């Protein structure tokens, strides 16, 4: 049976409709690469190989996300999963997975959890957390995941490095994998996550 890897993409959320409209108006698209470019998430199946099945659901309203809506959609996927899964979340997707696992039982064995540049809170930024705010206690995350990885780059201007420090404080069992020059992890190559997924796929 193939090892299932669930990948939750990032997104944005706004407290007001006006803020959302302003974002759409100011967002710059300088190249068609924005629509056709490949990042590491799109290449994950290719890089992991035939032993893995990568499932990447499109979460509702990516540009004006709400946790309550993402939770409903995510839970439709859970009954279809094998008994052992690997979870990957990038940016707001990582925030979503951490919050969900802190507040809910997945009901499946989680072989490894990979949070890539997840936002813990909005300190030092101009973005909103909306209903993605972390609960005070994240112990339930570690109870469900034997192997937890937090990936963060010190030059990430979207999610400051202090978010990774807050996550590792709230989840002491998590392993911090830090970088100096990966930004917000929008590049095609991400060999470290490939290596960790493969190494801990049978944990």
Topology:
Blueprint: E1 3-8, H1 17-26, H2 33-36, H3 44-48, E2 52-55, H4 67-77, E3 84-90, H5 92-103, E4 109-116, H6 139-144, E5 148-153, H7 162-170, E6 175-179, H8 191-199
Parallel strand pairs: 1-2, 1-3, 3-4, 4-5, 5-6
Detailed description of the structure:
With 203 residues, this protein is an alpha/beta fold. Helices cover 33% and strands 18% of the residues. The protein has a single domain (3-199), classed as Rossmann fold, CATH 3.40.50.1820. Helix 7 (162-170) links the parallel strand 5 and strand 6. The mean pLDDT is 94.
- Which architecture does the CATH hierarchy give at level 2? 3-Layer(aba) Sandwich
The level 1 CATH classification is Alpha Beta
The strand count comes to 6
Strand order of the largest sheet: 2-1-3-4-5-6
Question: Roughly what percent helix?
Answer: 25-40%
* Main sheet record: 6 strands, parallel
Low-confidence stretches: none
CATH T-level topology: Rossmann fold
Arithmetic mean pLDDT: 94
Put simply, the count of helices is 8
Work out the count of structural domains: 1
CA-atom Rg in angstroms: 16 Å
Relevant CATH superfamily = Alpha/Beta hydrolase fold, catalytic domain
Please give the alpha-carbon distance between the first and last residues: 15 Å
Summarize this entry quickly.
With 203 residues, the protein is an alpha/beta fold. The protein has 8 helices and 6 strands, in the order βαααβαβαβαβαβα.
